[in-house]
Amino acid sequence: MKKHNFSAGPCILPQEVFQKSAEAILDFNGIGLSLLEISHRSKDFVPVMDEARAIVKRLMKLGDEYEVLFLGGGASLQFAMVPLNLMKSENGKAAYLDTGTWAAGAIKEAKKLGTVDIVSSSKEDQYSYIPKDYKVGSDYDYFHCTSNNTIYGTQMHEFPEVDTVMVCDMSSDIFSNARDYSKFDLMYAGAQKNMGPAGVTVVVVKKEILGKTGRDIFSMLDYQKHIEKESMYNTPPVFPVYATLLTLQHLENNGGIEAAEQRNIAKAKLIYDEIDRNPLFVGFAKKEDRSFMNVSFKILDENKKEAFDNAWKAAGISGLNGHRSLGGYRASLYNALNIESVQVLVDVMKSIS
Ligand SMILES: *Cc1c(COP(=O)(O)O)cnc(C)c1O
């Protein structure tokens, strides 16, 4: 039986996507060949890449000033590609907001290329909130933030107005809410959190911000090269691109980002209400910064932990353990998770108190 999958990533995808992906591996569109054994430059695959790039822009309501890339290397490679492509080679300087382990990972890489100012950080408070007390001036080459902190369960519900290029790691909440995506000059997300299988990363970039560093960039790390070659500079990860396209088509056919946002709000409310009502549980993140995607919480009475763990496992729930660095529990409510699954978890929580 299908489990209620609360995993933080790789994550649950629509069942229809699993089915269609499996079919495509056996026989792609009835051509008598597997998706895995055809040329990425064939007339059968090129439309997949073209439509995958187009649907991202449609869903985000972005115009022709943006380009969409499907790249390998994970979101982690973007920690390096962003400064390589945006930080001036001489006296380069960038502003970063430190809201968690992933943000810190991005900072670590950027420091290898130039000056990095951490404009604000919630590290001292175990990353339990999103700092809001900072300004970013035009003396920076760009500003980098992380919209959703997957491990801690905090999310930026508002974004600052900055006087420079705005970059955001949206790995764990892309396509989950109807934010104004045109506020950003560069967005990236590893597919495996809310969009597709591991192995591909989506980068959405405004063309005008590129080509200004004075640096000769390795071709594979150069956004402009990938744009020129329409994400086919080298052999793209064809299967993750196809499965991501199926997920995004599923999203578009079910009311787009706006409808997904409403479903995600309802799911998050259901579980946060129980965390706040039930004296046995406590949420980790500061309330106003709570994530609608990753709900981190703890059990207060350690004596009831075993009973709770047994009960959720018996209810067919999977992937509820917190990140190893934080402990406790983490319920990830990505787009494909149904509210019925959240109800099952909430019923278990009620039964323990
Ligand atoms: C998971 C995650 C990453 C790292 O993604 P990879 O694709 O594994 O490199 C980066 N940023 C955030 C916010 C994440 O959740």
TrEMBL record:
Location within or outside the cell: Cytoplasm
Q: What does it catalyze? A: 4-(phosphooxy)-L-threonine + 2-oxoglutarate = (R)-3-hydroxy-2-oxo-4-phosphooxybutanoate + L-glutamate; O-phospho-L-serine + 2-oxoglutarate = 3-phosphooxypyruvate + L-glutamate
Q: Name the Enzyme Commission number(s) assigned to this protein.
A: 2.6.1.52
What's a single GO MF annotation on this record? O-phospho-L-serine:2-oxoglutarate aminotransferase activity
Q: Describe how the cofactor binds.
A: Binds 1 pyridoxal phosphate per subunit.
Binding of pyridoxal 5'-phosphate occurs at: 75-76, 102, 150, 169, 192, 234-235
Q: Which cofactor does it need?
A: pyridoxal 5'-phosphate
Q: Which family does it belong to?
A: Belongs to the class-V pyridoxal-phosphate-dependent aminotransferase family. SerC subfamily.
This molecule's function is given as: Catalyzes the reversible conversion of 3-phosphohydroxypyruvate to phosphoserine and of 3-hydroxy-2-oxo-4-phosphonooxybutanoate to phosphohydroxythreonine.
* Description of how the protein assembles with itself and partners: Homodimer.
Protein name in the entry: Phosphoserine aminotransferase
